[in-house]
Amino acid sequence: MATTLAKAPESVEYAARLEHVSKSFAGPGGQQLVLDDISLDVAPGEFVTLLGASGCGKSTLLNLVAGLDRPTAGSIGTDGRPALMFQEHALFPWLTAGKNIELALKLRGVPKNDRRGKTEELLELVRLKGAYGKRVHELSGGMRQRVALARALAQESNLLLMDEPFAALDAITRDVLHDELTRIWAETGLSVLFVTHNVREAVRLAQRVVLLSSRPGRIAREWSVDIPQPRRIEDAPVAELSLEITDVLRGEIRRHGQH
Questions:
Q1: Where are the domains of the chain?
Q2: Does domain 16-82+158-255 have CATH number 3.40.50.300?
Q3: How many angstroms separate the CA atoms of 171 and 177, rounded?
Q4: Range 224-240 burial, b when 16+ CB lie within 10 A, else e
Q5: Coiled coil located at which positions (predicted)?
Q6: What is the pTM of this model?
Q7: For the segment 42-92, what is each residue's pLDDT rounded down to a tens digit?
Q8: Which of 20, 170, 191, 248 could lock 74 by a disulfide, CB 3.0 to 4.6 Å apart?
Q9: How are beta strands 191-196 and 47-51 bridged, if at all?
């Protein structure tokens, strides 16, 4: 089946580029520096996971790339407007699964007569064929996240931003959705920037893992993940690299006095 997403042109230099990005927020004691001098490229078609302890600024960074906030310093460029997927599915409960996706198509300017067909294609892509008329309360947690993913894909962006989208799911459902996301990424040629605090999830999915330090968030280290896909959480190479990254993460947490 042909998907509704086009692969990023080879001439595009990057899907996302952050150059010396810093972000501060006003706090009780004055300006609080949350992110400090972040420089990061996401190549077209690349899958990058952004890893770090809670409070290190991962979600803040994703919001900046999404254009939901502006950096205090530095610049951010993207290949078109990114699509964003949150931890919560954020589906409208009064709409069916299909109508939730169609809403994204409507906002994108897709003609009304074309929306149903495109929605059915997207539901088939996330393996929810036949779920068009189902209400949100009829869907399991994993199915809701699949609909949320289809809605994000409906935006036809070359860059998908994902903020811990599987964190609330049970281990089996999360593992299944890891497989599905890897398949969809391979089929569509999307670039993905995926935020997580789960080290094994980061290694399971990504071509590159970027670790943020805390207080303020800086890039502490990066790893290329040269493990062939498909991968499993329990695979020995995944476990081995996860242990290495965990040791570095623990060192960062100790260094910044976190618990």
A1: 16-82+158-255, 92-156
A2: yes
A3: 10
A4: ebebeeebebebeebee
A5: none
A6: 0.88
A7: 999 999 999 988 888 899 999 999 999 999 999 999 998 999 988 777 889
A8: 20
A9: parallel
